[in-house]
TrEMBL record:
Family the UniProt entry places it in: Belongs to the UPF0332 family.
Transmembrane segments: none
InterPro entries: HEPN_dom, UPF0332_toxin
Residue ranges annotated for the HEPN domain, each copy included: 39-165
Protein name: Uncharacterized protein (UPF0332 family)
Superkingdom field: Archaea
Length: 169
């Protein structure tokens, strides 16, 4: 699992990971990328709508977790696309967000308003939800109760809404 805490503390480690992902072409500048911003945002909302229906049925909590993760992931991809890039890796996407949408390494004149920045809490939520998604997808014994799904659902909606605010700014 990606330890986001390390990348918030260590700019050199963040830059090294960013350089690695650009070298491997997991992150690439793409001229058509900006046209994908709203497509990714729409896909995020589509996944949230799926989860809403699934929650109403009261079944398949594991698939709700999967849907929530992909809602958050597509919202993150929308932010990547907003900067003219595409990402081919879940970890590369988070590295990109930390480098481009946080206040950690910006000088004071360039600080973003926290409501329009990805915070350490947001990044940790992303990686924790990714871990839950992996359990839901691959484990034979990971069961998720309704309260856990509802908690992650609210946080996912908050993340997608925050991304939408950043995009609209």
């Amino acid at each position: 699992m990606l330890n986001v805490e390390e990348y918030f503390k260590n700019k050199e480690k963040l830059e090294g990971a960013y350089d690695f992902h650009t070298y491997k072409k997991n992150l690439e500048k793409e001229r058509h990328a900006k046209s994908l911003v709203y497509a990714h945002l729409d896909k995020a909302k589509h996944n949230l709508a799926f989860v809403n229906q699934n929650i109403k049925s009261g079944n398949f909590q594991d698939w709700s977790i999967v849907g929530l993760y992909y809602a958050v992931y597509h919202a993150a991809l929308a932010l990547v696309a907003k900067k003219g890039f595409i990402s081919r890796s879940h970890n590369a996407t988070m590295i990109f967000l930390i480098k481009n949408y946080t206040n950690e390494f910006r000088n004071e004149e360039l600080q973003l308003i926290d409501d329009l920045a990805i915070t350490k809490k947001d990044a940790t939520f992303y990686t924790d939800l990714k871990s839950e998604r992996q359990k839901a997808s691959y484990s034979t014994d990971a069961m998720f109760n309704e309260s856990k799904v509802l908690e992650l659902h609210k946080k996912s909606i908050d993340f997608v809404n925050k991304v939408e605010d950043i995009i609209e700014d």
